[in-house]
Amino acid sequence: MKKTILLGALLWGTTLSAYAVQFGPLTLSGFGKDEITTANNVGTVNDNGAMPLPCYGDAREVLPTSRTPGSQQYCLPTGAGTVTTPSPMFQLTGTLKHEFDNGVTVQGVLTKRIRSGSNDVVGQNWYEKYVAISYPSMGQLSVGTQLARAWSRQDGFSYPIGLSTAWSETGAGFGILPDAVRFTSRMFHSSYGKFTLEATYATNHAYNQYVGPQLAGPAPTPQMLELFAQFSNRSNLIEFTYEISRGAGQSSWGKNPFVGASNLPVLTVNGTNGTTTNYYDSEPVQSVAILEGDHWFTPQWMFTWGLRHSYWSGASTTCGYVTSLGPGLGGGCTYPSGGFNYAVLTSGGTPVQPGYSASTNDFLLGLSHYRGLWTYTAGMVYLGRARTDNPTQWGQDNWAVVTNLGIYRKVPEIYRNLSVYAGFGYVHFGQLGAPPLSMTSVSQFGGVNSWVSRDGESVTLGALITF
Q1: Beta-strand (E) ranges in 136-233?
Q2: Which domain holds residue 340?
């Protein structure tokens, strides 16, 4: 079916559009969209519509300083209100491609994505920046900055039903791989359908060069292995992704760039920039396994589903790899790590924040109906409780359900590649307090804050143009 072919082509192509602009061997493609979301029960300061400042290194706002009014790092909301947020976005991909007479194809791909006037992901100047060589009977080898399948394919399934943030931007996956080598096999055929296999190795600097300078210190070098498989036939598209990494900055933001664990913003229990009493004692490990797919009952009705298991080893808030920043810079925190799923404890009267391992299970369900120029969707994401021995309540006992009803219409009367859409969203938390561990922050879903309300609604209006 055409939809299966289009989704499968995302493995090989670099465009979201069916109408690219061709200049000889150079192809330009991309999209521009603008949407505006209004949500209620958003955590605000003094009910004036302003959201509180983020607590770096404490996105769930569980540390004492984040909950102590008057402290330097106080970041809890004091009330709930309704907030309207615009989100303009533009993406452009340039592909320079040449095919030789023997069937070998070489290409270079460069993709830039801008959201609200800045890089979509802080510190990542390029979404994609790689070169590739392919041969029909073997497959494709790509080297450079590439999108992780864990994020891009979760986004491919959840974006059409209005649940991209809730599904693809949660869990233990990564989004952008700045230094990666990927091999994608050719497509194999059987009586049951077609399938493709893929393996990716990624690494990066030991320090997070996008946040601070490179300084000497025993920080680990991040490394990742990602395995991917896709199967499709006339009625099904099924994909499996498995990632395992060591030494990277841990988070539950599925769009997180694959960068070193060091030099991330940090908040410690004493509210300073760090403490030299902690030390880095092990490499952080995290992994994610994702099984997801689409099933077409008829050409007009499609069912979307997804299962995900996330694991984090936990990471302490560490600081003090070296005791001096250099001449004239003084001592202090050189290589802080924001930590993940750590506890607020003391050892001999000294604050420590050891990390604890954790795992979660989440799932996605969706239904789409296509009727001429119209598409109607309904979907939900469930973020489950976490299994962990952490004595500090980091959100492991919380859970969330995120739902969305959407309506889309192509508008060829104005422009052949113009679509408009609207969505009604609803989020429900299992309890007040820190959000589920699969969420990266307390205000990830439109600002609805689990510290002030268990429920929140949102309305989104948008327009999309592809080229």
Answers
A1: 139-147, 176-185, 188-189, 194-203, 223-232
A2: 2-466
Q: What is the pLDDT of residues 231-250, one digit of tens each?
A: 999 999 999 999 999 988 88
Instruction: Supply the CATH number for residue 126's domain.
Output: 2.40.160.10
Is the pLDDT assigned to residue 12 strictly greater than 70?
no
- Count structural domains, the chain: 1
459 phi and psi, to 5 degrees?
Answer: -125, 130
Distance CA 267, CA 53 (A): 13
Identity at 151, one-letter amino acid code: W
Residue 132 CB partners (closer than 8 Å, separation 6+):
106, 107, 108, 109, 140, 141, 142, 143
Report pTM. 0.88
Cα separation, 47 vs 43, in Å, equals 8
Within 13 Å, how many C-alpha atoms sit on residue 130's CB side?
24
Phi-psi domain of 251 (left: phi exceeds 0; alpha: psi -120 through 50; beta: other): beta
Number of H helices, E strands in the chain: 3, 22
| Cα separations in angstroms, 100 against 9, 104, 106, 109 | 21, 5, 8, 18
Q: How far apart are CA 202 and CA 147, in angstroms?
A: 11
Contact 39, 448 (CB under 8 A): yes
Count of other CB atoms within 10 angstroms of residue 326 = 12
Phi-psi region of 255 (alpha: psi -120 to 50; beta: other; left: phi over 0): alpha
Asked if residues 156 and 9 have their Cβ atoms less than 8 Å apart, the reply is no
- Residue 235 near residue 296 (C-beta atoms within 8 A): yes
For tokens 């924040």, name the residue.
Answer: 353
The vertex-100 CA angle with 99 and 102, nearest 5°, equals: 125
3-state secondary structure of 185: strand
The DSSP call for residue 257 is: B
Both tokens of residue 17?
């559009």
Q: Are 111 and 126 in contact (CB under 8 A)?
A: yes
Distances (CA, A) of 300 to 309, 371, 465: 31, 7, 23
Three-state secondary structure call for residue 159: helix
**What confidence tens digit (pLDDT) does each residue in 95-109 have?**
999 999 999 999 999
Q: How many residues does the chain have?
A: 467
